[in-house]
Structures are given as C-alpha cells and as structure tokens.
Amino acid sequence: MGETGARGVSADEFLQIVLALPEVRQKEHTNWTGFNVAGKGFGYLSEDGETAMLKATLVEQAAMVGENPEAFARSYTSEQYGWVEVRLGAVPRDELEEVITEAWYLTAPQRLTDAYDLPA
C-alpha cells in the first residue's frame, strides 16, 4: 500500500494500530476491509489504503472536522454516532491512534473497556 507525506500515515500503519487493540477482527470485502470487536463494526479501510472510516460521537465528529478539515470529513450518522472519513495521508500518527482507540472504545463490550487503559 502507498507511501504517505511527512505528516500522514500509511495503510500498513493504520493496520498496526487497529489490530493491536484487544479482540479486533478484520473482514475483507470487495472495496474495503472492515474491523469489528464483539461482532460490532467500528472502522473500515478503503481498498486503495487512502482513507478510513471510523466511528465517533456526534460531538467528536464535529470537532475533528472543524479542527482539521484536511484530514477529516463528515461521513454519515447512525443514532448517536457520527462516522468520520479519515484521509490517512493528512493525519498525524498520534492523532490517528487516538481516533482509532476511541472508535474501538465506543464499540467494545464493557468487559474489554474496563480492562483496557485508554490513553490520556
């Protein structure tokens, strides 16, 4: 998968981050790869490795898009969640780690979140 600019991350780095979280499963589809925990989806990676979609709260969705529209775009909403499109080449690794971890945390069952130290 492609290289990125100085600030961004590659699809391989995205995979390293997401697959390091407890009990994450990935499933290949025609144009994307889905990621779930306990059978519930929290993220997707496009086939070309350029973009990802991640679950967020509506408040987080608005904040990310407002603060860094080069890296984040509003995708869709489902109930209390606002999915965010992430342009991997435009987002710093530390910020992406936080967004992925929060997406996992919103989705994982309490037995996992209670045992996981959410980064500050």
- CATH class group: Alpha Beta
Enumerate the spans where pLDDT stays under 50 for 5 or more consecutive residues.
1-5
* Coarse shape: globular
> Structural class given helices, strands, pairing?
alpha+beta
Known CATH architecture? Alpha-Beta Complex
Per DSSP, the total helix count is 4
What's a quick, concise take on this entry?
With 120 residues, the protein is an alpha+beta fold. It has 4 helices and 6 strands.
Describe the protein in words.
This protein has 120 residues and is an alpha+beta fold. The protein has a single domain, classed as Alpha-Beta Complex (Aspartate Aminotransferase, domain 1). It is built from 4 helices and 6 strands, in the order αββββαββαα. The chain has helices at 11-19, 58-67, 93-107, 110-115; strands at residues 24-28, 32-37, 40-46, 51-54, 72-78, 81-87. It has a 6-stranded antiparallel sheet with strand order 1-2-3-4-6-5. A hairpin with a 2-residue loop joins strand 2 and strand 3. Helix 1 crosses helix 3. It is globular. Residues 1-5 have low confidence and may be disordered. Keywords: DNA-binding.
Give keywords.
YjbR/MT2646/Rv2570-like; 4 helices; 120 residues; globular; Aspartate Aminotransferase, domain 1; MmcQ/YjbR family DNA-binding protein; YjbR-like_sf; DNA-binding; alpha+beta; DNA binding
Mind sketching the topology for me?
Layout: H1 11-19, E1 24-28, E2 32-37, E3 40-46, E4 51-54, H2 58-67, E5 72-78, E6 81-87, H3 93-107, H4 110-115
Antiparallel strand pairs: 1-2, 2-3, 3-4, 4-6, 5-6
Helix pairs in contact: 1-3
Protein name: MmcQ/YjbR family DNA-binding protein
Pfam family, one: YjbR
GO molecular function: DNA binding
